[in-house]
């Protein structure tokens, strides 16, 4: 479940305890001076914090904006209220409740559990909807599905009066029947923080974050992001349901507007102000927004009067504050105050990174028995444009094959076809005896054909190490070939050891290319498909890249199909070369043979030589 | 049969309003990939302008152009104040920015006007019907449909025949390429917001004539419908947005008319469920706009 027990289990547990202690300690300190209303404010803050942490698990890990979590809250809140309120009380508002629910009474704990189960059932349905809609980070269709959930629950709450008591009455506990002690809230809060942190550090969490960073690259690394999205949704909804039950139990009643747009705004603002990709951030945001709302309410209240400020210090200021916080943060600091900073990871790096020792460079293993990649008669039409015409290629995993051709020759299209991202109009391709055409990109990646991208698609806000860990984790969980190299060894071999804790987005161009190669190698490929691995590099960098491609291929036992339009690079690295021009293979052979081919000189080298 | 025809015309009347809103949303999505949850604020602001003008004794002949003008100016102002600063940001950021603007405008009206409903006199002919061969048609539906046809015709002319329309379509196709070709991104985006504002203004006129109310959340309902219509049609497709609006309007009226009594009050909910189902089975909407990602 975790890749590194200390980093992913021990420190997050300690960190969760610290965050919990700071939040509760601060709250107790604040409420120990002053009126009892302060205690209520702190209770509300703690309950909202549970809710926000619950929402963070989904939005933070998947990058999908959900308006629906408060809708799940509505479902859970009503389930809790209907089951936990005493029958005598219910008989006045929901005398005709379906399934005689008006005569049922469960203990608050049991009612809360049922509320969790009911909202999880709805979450499964919504999860399938998200999966079908092809949800990716920031996907609009996914957001609208969640918005539809919020609207439908609101509509039901208003109109299904036999169950909900409708818009006016709502459902309420008898005075004195509401929550008596804060312990359930403490327990739920600590549990929520711990679960959120452990989820983010788990393998599932890491793969979800990879999908959030770049859905296409995640699929090219063998991930099916919808699986992690579903898990994140269920974990997140369970916590939201607990928070909603506590909110109803604490306040003592529920009406349709209780869990609707207003509360959606409040919780989303809390989440984004702190930093939606961080649990620490979610808690920080909850505190800041609670303080800010209270303060603006105080400023707008009767106890403050500053001449000339009547126009701004008036009722409704706290709503303006929330709206302005949302717009302001989106414009000036959309990743929130702390971005993805986590207290426990900071502690881990401070105390542990000095103890990490660079692994020695591994021995080169015996190469495995070679396997053949065969592409037969692949033709691709884009509308009326024929990008590839009956292209055939054969490569063995003990060689490096170059694919060269001028811009627009169809090189990248060929890689897209072989990795399942473009479906060929005609043609087949095989790895060994396994036919791969028609398979989705993630299955092709898991079968051993792994690509890099011409325009660099790293998981940019993950660290260098996490980028490699993502594909390593995929290889491990799908029981691909036994690994020759550990994550650290791969990083060391790529020359990125010193940079392992850096974010991928902070790397320079050459190191980004190296990381992309390392990430592909960690998936234990039989073939590496490299799309212009040296584009934009200087000659010296390019030579270093040749060395790294060779070393990587040898150490993971993979063949290489490398695409480029740079003749020196391709002839320097390849055992054999295919020349592509206008969608056709026009020559094939050793570097020497290809260079001597008159057709090649005319189509490609002639023009290249002229500009050189 | 006559009932069905009446419902169809009623649905097209409603649908025309949704179509104009959806088209505005599609135009903005085309140039900056923003789904504008603040589109309804154009209606909210117009609603208060209508309320104040009618309170002041103005005739609807004055109110109508003022509504269109208000919506257009509001659209341009919102772009300049908020959306300009998130151009090119990730979709997540833009979605939340527009959601935030929606709440800010709403909060401002609660703060400076009132949270309660302000009513104003609707046009005297609003409930009149027109009888053709035994079918009672509401005049306001006919006006709405007529005005929508004229507005759409002018919009098509702008998109097809003017330099601005060409740049706008080019930008919607491929923004970076359009910019390389010399399209001024700033001017196109501002123009798109202005056009979207005019379209919302025309929609507002008929929405507000029917409702007779100004509230801080007046635009929320129609905004949601506009966004949904744009999505039904396939986000980014302008013809799709118009079709989506009409489909949504007709579907709503027919569902309200023919759903069994106990469920009829949940029409909105049913519409949402149907739309969620549509996305599940056809995420790209009715009209497929291929935005294949380049790799």
Using brief descriptors, characterize the structure shown:
heterodimer; A: 612 residues; alpha/beta; 6-stranded mixed β-sheet; 4-stranded antiparallel β-sheet; 24 helices; 12 strands; 56% helix; elongated; B: 295 residues; mainly alpha; two-stranded antiparallel sheet; 12 helices; 71% helix; disordered C terminus
Structure description:
The complex is a heterodimer of chains A (612) and B (295). Chain A is built from 24 helices and twelve strands. Chain A is of the alpha/beta class and 612 residues long. Chain A has a six-stranded mixed sheet, with helices on both faces. Chain A has a four-stranded antiparallel sheet with strand order 4-3-6-7, covered by helices on one side. In chain A, strands 1-2 form a two-stranded antiparallel ribbon. In chain A, strand 11 and strand 12 form a beta hairpin. The longest helix of chain A has 28 residues. The longest helix of chain B is centred in the first third of the chain and has 31 residues. Helix content of chain B is 71%, strand content 4%. Chain B contains twelve helices and four strands. In chain B, a hairpin with a 2-residue loop joins strand 2 and strand 3. Chain B is mainly alpha-helical and 295 residues long. Chains A and B meet through helix 5, helix 6, helix 12 and helix 14 of A and helix 4, helix 9 and helix 12 of B.
């Amino acid at each position: 479940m975790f890749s590194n027990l200390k980093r992913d289990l021990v420190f997050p547990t300690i960190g969760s305890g610290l965050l919990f202690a700071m939040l509760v300690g601060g709250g107790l300190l604040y409420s120990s001076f002053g009126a009892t209303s302060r205690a209520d404010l702190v209770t509300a803050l703690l309950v909202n914090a549970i809710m926000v942490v619950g929402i963070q698990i989904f939005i933070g890990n998947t990058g999908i904006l959900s308006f629906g979590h408060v809708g799940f809250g509505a479902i859970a809140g009503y389930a809790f209220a209907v089951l936990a309120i005493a029958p005598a009380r219910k008989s006045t508002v929901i005398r005709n409740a379906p399934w005689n629910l008006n005569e049922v009474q469960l203990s608050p704990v049991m009612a809360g559990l049922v509320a969790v189960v009911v909202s999880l059932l709805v979450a499964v349905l919504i999860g399938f909807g998200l999966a079908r809609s092809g949800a990716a980070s920031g996907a609009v269709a996914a957001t609208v599905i969640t918005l539809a959930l919020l609207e439908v629950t609101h509509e039901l709450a208003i109109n299904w009066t036999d169950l909900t008591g409708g818009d006016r009455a709502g459902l309420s506990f008898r005075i004195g029947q509401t929550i008596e002690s804060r312990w359930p809230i403490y327990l739920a809060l600590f549990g929520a923080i711990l679960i959120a942190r452990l989820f983010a550090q788990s393998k599932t969490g890491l793969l979800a974050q990879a999908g959030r960073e770049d859905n296409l690259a995640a699929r090219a690394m063998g991930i099916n992001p919808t699986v992690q999205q579903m898990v994140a949704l269920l974990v997140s909804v369970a916590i939201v349901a607990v928070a909603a039950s506590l909110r109803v139990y604490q306040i003592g009643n529920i009406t349709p507007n209780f869990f609707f747009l207003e509360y959606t705004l409040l919780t989303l603002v809390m989440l984004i102000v702190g930093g939606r990709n961080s649990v620490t951030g979610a808690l920080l945001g909850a505190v800041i927004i609670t303080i800010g709302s209270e303060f603006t309410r105080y400023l707008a209240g009767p106890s403050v009067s500053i001449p000339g400020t009547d126009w701004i210090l008036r009722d409704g200021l706290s709503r303006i504050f929330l709206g302005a916080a949302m717009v302001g943060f989106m414009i000036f600091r959309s990743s929130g105050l702390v971005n993805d900073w986590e207290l426990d990871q900071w502690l881990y790096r401070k105390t542990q990174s000095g103890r990490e020792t660079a692994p020695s460079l591994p021995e080169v293993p015996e190469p495995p028995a070679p396997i053949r990649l065969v592409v037969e008669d692949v033709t691709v039409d884009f509308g009326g444009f024929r990008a590839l015409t009956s292209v055939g290629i054969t490569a063995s995993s003990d060689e490096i094959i170059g694919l060269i051709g001028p811009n627009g020759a169809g090189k990248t299209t060929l890689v897209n076809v072989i990795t399942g991202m473009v479906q060929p109009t005609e043609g087949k391709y095989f790895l060994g005896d396994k036919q791969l055409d028609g398979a989705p990109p993630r299955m092709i990646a898991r079968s051993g054909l792994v690509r890099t991208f011409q325009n660099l698609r790293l998981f940019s806000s993950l660290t260098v190490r996490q980028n490699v860990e993502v594909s390593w984790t995929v290889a491990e969980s799908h029981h691909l070939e036994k690994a020759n190299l550990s994550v650290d060894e791969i990083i060391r071999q790529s020359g990125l050891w010193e940079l392992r804790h850096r974010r991928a987005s902070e790397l320079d161009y050459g190191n980004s290319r190296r990381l992309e190669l390392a990430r592909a190698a960690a998936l234990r490929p039989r073939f590496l498909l490299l799309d212009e691995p040296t584009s934009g590099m200087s000659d010296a960098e390019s030579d270093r890249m040749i060395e790294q491609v060779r070393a990587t291929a040898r150490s993971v036992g993979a063949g290489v199909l490398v695409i480029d339009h740079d003749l020196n690079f391709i002839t320097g690295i390849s055992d054999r070369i295919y020349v592509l021009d206008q969608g056709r293979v026009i020559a094939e052979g050793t570097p020497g043979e290809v260079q001597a081919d008159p057709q090649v000189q005319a189509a490609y080298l002639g023009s290249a030589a002229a500009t050189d | 049969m006559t009932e069905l025809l009446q419902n169809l015309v009623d649905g097209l009347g409603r649908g025309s309003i949704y179509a104009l809103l959806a088209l505005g949303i599609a135009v903005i999505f085309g140039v900056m990939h923003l789904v504008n949850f603040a589109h309804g604020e154009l209606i909210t602001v117009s609603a208060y302008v209508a309320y104040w003008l009618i309170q002041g004794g103005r005739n609807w002949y004055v109110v109508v152009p003022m509504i269109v003008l208000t919506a257009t100016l509001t659209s341009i102002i919102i772009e300049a104040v908020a959306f300009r600063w998130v151009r090119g940001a990730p979709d997540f950021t833009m979605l939340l920015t527009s959601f935030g603007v929606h709440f800010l405008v709403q909060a401002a009206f609660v703060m400076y006007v009132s949270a309660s409903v302000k009513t104003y006199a609707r046009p005297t002919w609003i409930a009149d019907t027109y009888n053709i061969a035994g079918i009672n048609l509401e005049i306001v539906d006919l006006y709405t449909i007529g005005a929508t046809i004229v507005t759409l015709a002018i919009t098509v002319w702008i998109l097809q025949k003017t330099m601005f329309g060409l740049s706008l379509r080019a930008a919607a196709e491929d923004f970076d390429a359009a910019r390389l070709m010399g399209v001024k991104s700033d001017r196109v985006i501002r123009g798109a917001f202005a056009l979207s504002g005019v379209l919302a203004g025309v929609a507002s006129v008929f929405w507000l004539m029917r409702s007779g109310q100004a509230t801080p959340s007046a635009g929320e309902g129609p905004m949601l419908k506009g966004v949904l219509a744009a999505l039904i049609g396939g986000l980014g497709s302008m013809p799709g947005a118009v079709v989506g609006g009409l489909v949504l309007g007709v579907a709503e009226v027919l569902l309200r008319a023919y759903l069994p009594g106990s469920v009829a009050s949940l029409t909105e909910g049913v519409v949402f469920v149907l739309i969620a189902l549509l996305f599940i089975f056809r995420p790209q909407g009715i009209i497929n706009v291929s935005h294949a990602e380049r790799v």
